[in-house]
Amino acid sequence: DVTGFGGAAGGGKTALAVGLAVTEHRTVGIFRQNGTELRGIYDEVARVLGTRDGLAEHKGVWTFQRFDGQDCQIEFGSFPSPGDVEKYRGRPHDLLVFDEAQSMRELDVRFLMGWLRTTGDRPDQRCRALFTFNPPTTVEGRWLVAYFAPWLDKKHPNPAKPGELRWFAQLGGLETEVDSGTPFEHNGEKIIPQSRTFVPSRLDDNPYLKDTGY
């Protein structure tokens, strides 16, 4: 349900985000902390699609047909100031991408995660979130180490291997790691755990950049 991907510059983070968006999903939200940073993502989508047809850049929306003929819409967004995420309230996405998540506020990201869902006419559509990031360099970004603690926190009592699935659930207002993804009841409420993993990436993992000499 949630994938963390990154760890170093040049590992193909944006390429992964765009690849998922244009091949696996129907209603996509791609977010950066600041809107001026979205230009590189526009360029990557255009490189993959081979065209800029369907891009309404003034609206931050790109509408096109996937390679399998399915309709797809990508919404590009940003939330530079506290409270900016409110403008995305009530707009579901079956893929949420938080690109360079180490620059984002945890409360903003968790708010947007509340709208990770498909619409009624697409009940079988898979929903997931992708966090791409490099190691946090500010205190504000350190929440990602706790969020992906089994993979990133060297002091975690039960560390996870790259790509290993773990499951988490909200219990009594606290995010808690649980044994599996099997739904269960807690204080009379049905709880459906959410799977999470982290995959490290490096420049050497990105053949496109290696082949072009970067």
Which descriptors would you attach to this protein?
29% strand, ten-stranded mixed sheet, globular, 214 residues
Task: Characterize the structure shown.
This protein is of the alpha/beta class and 214 residues long. It contains 6 helices and 12 strands. It has helices at 13-24, 39-49, 106-113, 143-147, 149-152, 207-211; strands at 2-6, 27-32, 55-56, 61-65, 71-78, 95-99, 128-133, 166-171, 174-178, 184-186, 189-191, 194-200. The strands form 2 sheets. Strands 3-4-5-2-6-7-1-12-8-9 form a 10-stranded mixed β-sheet, with helices on both faces. Strands 10-11 form a two-stranded antiparallel ribbon. Strand 4 (61-65) and strand 5 (71-78) form a beta hairpin. Helix 1 crosses helix 2 (39-49). The relative contact order is 0.20. The mean pLDDT is 91.
Strand content: 25-35%
The total count of strands amounts to: 12
Helix content: 10-25%
Which strand order spans the largest sheet, edge to edge or round the barrel? Answer: 3-4-5-2-6-7-1-12-8-9
Described by the principal axes of the CA atoms, the overall outline is globular
What's the story with the biggest beta sheet? 10 strands, mixed
> What do the pLDDT scores average to?
91
Structural class by helix and strand composition: alpha/beta
Q: List the uncertain runs.
A: none
Number of helices: 6
Radius of gyration: 17 Å
Order of helices and strands: EHEHEEEEHEHHEEEEEH
What is the first-to-last residue Cα distance?
A: 32 Å
